[in-house]
């Protein structure tokens, strides 16, 4: 019986020690080191309206596919011009004008 009691106490004390260690690790803040950048950072060079130009191309493809040659529907192609310069207000104004909104 003595061996049983001592083995239970040993297990219990070891589990308590592990639990206390886990709590200590979980509550200890982790220090992070910041990297220092040396020199100038490079910026992307390119067309600032590049995405807008892509959207205009996508709009043209969409309208051409959906209209299937309908002349009234193809008037929506004119709304792509404001998209090329990122003028979304102009695009929506053109769109609203054509749908008589």
Structural overview:
The chain has a domain at 50-98. Helix content is 63%, strand content 0%. It is built from five helices and no strands. The protein has helices at residues 2-27, 50-67, 71-74, 80-84, 88-98.
Helix content: 55-70%
Report the sheet with the most strands, covering strand number, pairing sense and barrel closure: none
The shape, in one word, is elongated
Low-confidence stretches: none
- DSSP strand tally: 0
Strand/helix succession: HHHHH
Radius of gyration, in angstroms, nearest whole number: 34 Å
The fraction of residues assigned to DSSP E strands is under 5%
Class computed from helices, strands and strand pairing: mainly alpha
Gap between N and C termini:
91 Å
Q: What is the count of DSSP helices, taking H or I runs of 4+ residues? A: 5
- Mean residue pLDDT: 76
Short description:
The protein is mainly alpha-helical. It has helices at 2-27, 50-67, 71-74, 80-84, 88-98.
Give a topology summary.
Layout: H1 2-27, H2 50-67, H3 71-74, H4 80-84, H5 88-98
Feature tags:
single chain; 101 residues; mainly alpha; 5 helices; 63% helix
């Amino acid at each position: 019986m003595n061996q049983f009691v001592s083995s239970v106490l040993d297990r219990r004390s070891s589990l308590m020690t592990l639990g206390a260690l886990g709590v200590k690790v979980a509550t200890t803040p982790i220090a992070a080191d910041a990297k220092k950048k040396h020199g100038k950072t490079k910026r992307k060079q390119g067309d600032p309206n590049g995405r807008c130009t892509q959207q205009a191309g996508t709009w043209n493809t969409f309208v051409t596919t959906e209209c299937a040659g309908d002349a009234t529907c193809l008037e929506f192609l004119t709304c792509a011009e404001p998209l090329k310069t990122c003028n979304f207000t102009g695009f929506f104004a053109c769109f609203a004008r054509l749908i008589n909104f």
